[in-house]
Sequence to fold (185 residues):
Amino acid sequence: PKQLFNLLSFKINDWKNTQIILSDERIVNDKRLSNEAMVNDELIGRINGGEKPTLIKYNRTGNQSKIENCLKTLSPNLAILGLGADGHTASLFPGKKGILDEKNNICLTVKNEWEDYERISLSFSYLMKSNQIIFLVSGSDKAEALKECLLGDYNPIQFPAQVIFKNYTKNIFILCDKAAGKYIA
Fold:
């Protein structure tokens, strides 16, 4: 997403009334490792003059009720998502059955065993309210996951992004490089 954000910072002149929320965020002590810092560096900080988009920020200390109340009144126009080599999107990772049972939640807290921090993620139900979804997928390490999400049997516990690929009722746009798309061409 860094390249996309950088490009958008120079291509879009009118950011008036634009609000951005990250599909996921790492709750880390070193904010330089956060997605929020990346958006500030690669997009918001590069916009010269005029109004800048507003970044809706998660509560880094826990309770997300304030942000959820704000988001209840907003339907996302566009969701730009990535795809992990393990089939995750946002911070909705394989093996986490609870991510599938969140019908009324907007935000979820996720803790992976291999990380020493928590993550906050938008839920599948909120992401699928988007008017449009774009997946950015690059690298050969994502090729198998992309193939399984698009062509494999439905197994969202193993490939969580399938929830969106198989249930979103509008068109999904996938922007991928040759390496990521090598099994679906």
Notes: The longest strand covers residues 132-137. Helices lie at 2-11, 35-42, 65-72, 124-127, 143-151, 162-167.
